Amino acid sequence: MTTLGIDIGCISLKAALVGQADDQDLFRDLLASHAHLFQAPRDGLTLVGDAPLLVARYRR
After folding, report:
1. Rounded CA gap, 30 and 9, in Å?
2. In the chain, how many domains are there?
């Protein structure tokens, strides 16, 4: 199960997806195929513990 977090501000919209440990391959594929949508960390996919995390690029 993937969780979507959204922060709606008066100037910007920020979003993040957090998956489960077994979603790591899916999140790597999403990051690779939609790099224009997500911040791409230098080290590859961001993990929080074993959970993959994708953060949308800052939009203003």
Report:
1. 25
2. 1
